[in-house]
Amino acid sequence: MIQDTLGMLDVQDIPPAIWVRRGRPPAMERAHRHDDLEINIVVRGRLDYLLGGRRISIGPGEIALFWAAFPHRLIDPGEADVCWVHLPLSTVLGWGLGEQEIGTLLRMRPVVVPLQEVPVRVVDLFEVWRTELAGDDAEIALLEAQALVRRVLAGHRRSGAAAGASGGTCGAPQEPEGAAHSGQGAAEHAVAMARYLAAHHRLPVSVSDAAGAVHLSPTYAMGVFKKVLGMTVAEYLTMCRLAEAKRLLLTTDWSAADVAHASGFSSQSSFYVHFKRDVGTSPSGYRRRYDFMSH
After folding, report:
1. In a shared domain, residues 15 and 116
2. Which PANTHER family does its entry note (predicted)?
């Protein structure tokens, strides 16, 4: 069966780690994923990613942040000059970011802002980090990285790009005895559930499964997740499955039925309904539209 041979089909798993690099984009024969916050600073040229089944472009003079746990691959890397930074998500969660900020980072869409929105000389700062992160001053560089991430998120809010991104809850859920009472605790639970769903979306997982992964009741877990992510567990699960389906449509010649099955949809009809609602066209129409990115 397709699912028996799928695994992470042509996706490379990279352990999370602090990593810095500057130069031209590397050729990527296949997608990869890693549990890091990835920072891209485009000094010259352009970066084009296939992320979540969508083409994402980061232009010159822009900085982008995204959670790299979703498979992503550079398309047609050119002569761009780019600064890359990977920071383990576990490190980022230790910064005490607010729920809305964490929710923004966990969505399958990069935060992209012009460098002029960030009131520091980012490229100069990066050059200092390359030395400090490899030496005894890594703690200083991480403090500056935290400040940079917070500034990018603040610039994102100011630009209005985050308008409507944070969903409210339909009444505050009652916390079970022993549950975390802090906003940071709720965010950590939401992150753990998002990680679980991103890793297991091909399986017939349920809200109860995601709640069980963080030892919460399903009702409370649903409230925490929507408060932080701005969407329900079911909506996030569908988003993960649609992203995988789009990736498979562009990187394999599988039939729509096989793609639906491998992506975790319970039926081909369910897949078609969700796909058409999200993309506005059929799976075959989507494949024809982006056929130039298939290889």
Report:
1. yes
2. ARAC SUBFAMILY (PTHR46796:SF6), HTH-TYPE TRANSCRIPTIONAL ACTIVATOR RHAS-RELATED (PTHR46796)
